[in-house]
Design a protein that fits this description.
Largest sheet: 2 strands, antiparallel
Number of domains: 1
Distance between the termini: 204 Å
Order of helices and strands: HEEH
Radius of gyration: 68 Å
Strand content: under 5%
Low-confidence stretches: none
Helix content: over 70%
Number of helices: 2
Shape: rod-shaped
């Protein structure tokens, strides 16, 4: 069993050379090993080409599907863009409306402040007028009271003087005793 490795390799080479020269009958055709090898290589190449074509066809279909998806996504993106534009327009309108309301409220507040100032001025004037009226009424009342006192005092004095005269006459009357 201890054969030489070189000898075995030479034997293999020799059998391969013999195989190249031998002829076989397949399906009624006489063929050699080389022609079968060539046929297998050609059939393998054709099958490989067909498989590569099939794989390429799948890749092309995937690419077409991807492009269609991209078109769908672009359509969705355009729809979102349109919605965003509509929302932007509405937001701008809302901001403008809010500014209008703010301006209207500012005008209303200024008008109310002016009315409040006018009302305060009117109240101050009314208070001053009422104070003046009260002061005038007090002075008239004082004048009337003083006048009434003087009248009452004068009338009382006159009454007292008349009464005293009557009493004095009654006392001076000799029939009164």
């Amino acid at each position: 069993m201890a054969k030489d490795l070189g000898e075995e390799i030479e034997n293999m080479e020799e059998s391969i050379e013999n195989l190249k020269k031998e002829k076989f009958h397949i399906f009624g055709f006489r063929v050699s090993f080389m022609s079968v090898s060539t046929l297998v290589a050609i059939v393998g190449t054709i099958l490989g080409t067909l498989y590569a074509g099939f794989i390429m066809y799948q890749k092309v279909e995937q690419a077409i599907e991807f492009v269609e998806q991209q078109e769908e996504y672009e359509a969705k993106i355009n729809a979102y863009d349109n919605r965003m534009k509509i929302m932007e327009t509405k937001v701008e309108d809302t901001v403008e409306y809010t500014r209008d309301i703010k301006g209207g409220l500012r005008d209303d507040i200024l008008r109310i402040e002016q009315q409040a100032d006018r009302t305060e001025d009117m109240v101050r004037k009314s208070v001053d007028d009422v104070r003046n009226m009260i002061t005038d009424a007090e002075s008239r009342f004082e004048t009337k009271r003083d006048s009434l006192r003087e009248t009452v005092n004068r009338d009382t004095k006159e009454l007292e003087d008349r009464l005293m005269r009557k009493i004095q006459r009654a006392l001076d009357n000799p029939l009164a005793n």
